[in-house]
Amino acid sequence: MPTEITLRLQINGEQVRRIIPANRSLLDFIREDLRLTGSKHGCDVGDCGACTVLVDGAPQLACITLAAECEGAAIRTIEGVTDGGGLHPIQEALHRHVGAQCGYCTPGIVMAMTSLLEADPHPSDSAINEALGSNICRCTGYTKILAAVREVARPGSPS
Amino acid sequence: MSQHEAAMHRPSVHESAHLHVTGAARYVADLPGPPGTLWALAVRSPHAHAVIRGIDVAAARAIPGVYAVLCAGDIPGHACWGPIRHDEPLLADGAVHAVGQAVAVVIADSEAVGRAGVAAVGVTYDVLEPILGIPAAIAAGSFLDDAPHVITRGDLDAAFATAAHVIEGEVASPAQDHFYLETQAALVVPEEDGTWRVFSSTQHPTEIQRAVADTLGVGANRVVCEVPRLGGGFGGKESQATPFACMAALGAWVTGRACRMVPHRDEDMIATGKRHPFLSKWRAAVAADGAILGLDARLWADGGWSLDLSGPIVDRAMFHVDNACFLPAVRIEGRACRTNVTSNTAFRGFGGPQGMLVVDDVLRTIAEVTGIPEADVLRRNLYGDAPRDRTPYGQAVDPTRLPRVLDALDARSGRSARVAEVAAFNERSRWVKRGLGLQAVKFGISFTNGLLNQAGATVLLYTDGTAQVNHGGTEMGQGLFTKMRAVAADALGIRPESVRVMATSTEKVPNTVATAASSGSDLNGAAVNDACATIVARLRPLAIELVGEDPVFAGGEVRGARGAMTVAALASAAWARRISLHATGFYATPGIAYDRAAGRGTPFFYYAYGAALVEVEVDGRTGESRLVRVDVVHDVGASLVPTIDRGQIEGAFVQGFGWLTMEDPRFDAAGRLVTHGPSTYKIPASGDVPGAFYVDLLPDADQPGVIGGSKAVGEPPFMLAIGVLGALRDAIRALRPGRSVRLALPATNENVLRAVAG
């Protein structure tokens, strides 16, 4: 049996303390132990972006991150983006532009774009493409996702 | 009259959009399952072809947390499954025929323990020589069908005798992994009295219900299959969700506890089938003006080791060899090869794209031998007035629709000016060249097995004026539920917000067909409409009594000659009069039939049409290419929900573009898939899509006899991406004028560079 450790961290503003196997991935910790299932298993090797969460504000792929590495960190998941119940502007824009079809990649895209827009509220197209390059979508052809992000990045300009 | 606008034919967000963007949308793997839910993990063959000498499960069973290890002999009911022919043992019985075939299933209390259990099962194999690839299968006479399917018409010998040019060619098209973002997933929960509730990420709940019932040896009435939503399907969960549900069911059966099976990505890619690779050889008789006089084409598909859906996939490929072109004399022959790879399966287009590549290659070759531009060769060969309006299998084609689409595309894209701009660009640029490709698509809509064209619905109206809609289709991102909500809202005269489309379940609508063949909204929409109409017909006499003659149901109100009332008040009044507020609906597509032995008939209710102009840029020094601009005009009839249809068109185009240019599944010499994750198997990313992407829906295009005058949209636009190949060829020709362009597929940078150098 793997060694167990005591993990303390903050999830969506709430302090959490759990005893977990030392080899538990952050994604399994979030999904199985905390039952926050908005973050998805997509490829399990850190290439599709469906599991993207924010660790101390920076996007991180939870499937290839050990929960143990996050001792003391502040984690934000998709469930923590709508604080107070209102949609984040990027959620609102994806909603309105039909930027989600099957929706499975959407939480990861929301997290990656939230991080981008918090670091730079007006990113260039190439910065958007760079940031979105870590997230795979199989349904939309990305057009509506890009339109939504551009609209938030440059309000008022044609997308 | 009510001033409320209809719900159909208006833009709408996806009905689950608020759940998608907040992470609240639940997929099968997100369902918690009862306490003590177990995991099923498969032991899979590492060999493409081998005899099993023995399976030693003792060490695995001894691991704490391993509840059971099941082999073929442990299955209580039927041991084999398959969507047409039951030729796939759920667990290998004596031999394996593909890498990734399930040999045993380990039931454990966690995924990690299950993995340890899988590693501890010892299987002894005598390895045999596999048959890999279509040429090897042809040489060995290894086929999944008993005889080829043949479609013929006209005098081919006479066509060749009178031809100005006799040309020939060969097209090899690659496999494609579905890469639905959500892998296969199933959760089976035992309920009381020997009944089972199956949650599955499947496009075909009824097949899951039947297969689980067969595997466990119980009646279908003891199994319910429920589908919350799919994280993408694209055909990959039409038949191949089945073994995952059945293995989870074995775990639930043997332990009495709930059991889930959710493979990781690499296991999913190794174990499940892909788009069929095809090899097609053709010979064509061509007139001096570039008109096709005759075509003789032979198609072979790599079906993998079992039949799965390979028969109808070959049929659909054959039905689409002509694509938009009239073939006066023709012979088309198709066969499905049996090889030692995982069984290839449905994938958006279902053989249609592979068939269309034949005529694409013919048109390319005609352009090269006659010097007529490819776009003009296409126009010259389009379907026309009788007798040039009949497909090789005899179905009539409306010859006016596609020219309308092409004219609209010429106008929207400014095609003639763009041809000059590209020429001017290429004049200025030594190594980087641009090219234009024009693609027309004519795609047949209906399951070609006519009996599958049926659907049911159950609609429940409540006394508060809200409704639940159940139908046989599954929501996998294509927006079916959004469309069904609009259909039901208009048919019941209530607002779309008052309609909930329920998770698909075999206990609400039985005996359904797969959500496939682009048919979901046509079939289920008509069934939902039928159910709603039944309810409204029951309410109408009461409405006349309460609000006067000619009552109109719209926007939550019923307005008649004497006044108005809410649908809620009418429903309450109906309840008090003991009038039923729920109804079933049914639909069967009329007038379709195909005689496979004769190669004649009307397999399709109608055709969907579209066209694209694609502009690419190729760097002749590296073979790198990029999409500069894509213009599309697509015929979706009177669009049920235009925002949804645009999303389908854009997504399908990009998926087709991925198939033809970058998705490159590789198998090693022993038949092992070596590209089983996104690090080695590249699907389009956001940086790959065109900077300028314009999609117009053809106006004034109502389709008679289809719900709301709409047309199916799921598959047809996938084939618009074939225009990328024409554009690449055009750019490559600019690098090496006057020479034939042989571009192998997928048109990766390497293959483009080879074509430039070749």
Structure description:
The complex is a heterodimer of chains A (159) and B (758). The mean pLDDT of chain A is 95. Helix content of chain A is 31%, strand content 17%. Chain A has 159 residues and is an alpha+beta fold. A five-stranded mixed sheet of chain A has the order 2-1-5-3-4, covered by helices on one side. Chain A has two domains: 4-80, Ubiquitin-like (UB roll) (Roll), CATH 3.10.20; 89-153, DNA polymerase, domain 1, CATH 1.10.150. The longest helix of chain A has 14 residues, at 106-119. Chain A is built from five helices and five strands. Chain B is of the alpha+beta class and 758 residues long. Chain B has four domains: 3-9 and 454-588, Aldehyde oxidase/xanthine dehydrogenase, molybdopterin binding domain (Aldehyde Oxidoreductase, domain 4, 2-Layer Sandwich); 31-129 and 178-271, 2-Layer Sandwich (Aldehyde Oxidoreductase, domain 4), CATH 3.30.365.10; 131-175 and 274-381, 2-Layer Sandwich (Aldehyde Oxidoreductase, domain 4), CATH 3.30.365; 395-445 and 605-758, Aldehyde Oxidoreductase, domain 4 (2-Layer Sandwich). Chain B is 29% helix and 25% strand. Chain B has 19 helices and 31 strands. In chain B, strands 3-7-1-14-11-12-13-22 form an eight-stranded mixed sheet, with helices on both faces. A five-stranded mixed sheet of chain B has the order 9-17-16-15-10. Chain B has a four-stranded mixed sheet with strand order 18-29-30-31, sandwiched between helices. In chain B, helix 6 (205-216) packs across helix 7, helix 14 (480-492) packs parallel to helix 15 and helix 15 crosses helix 16. The mean pLDDT of chain B is 97.
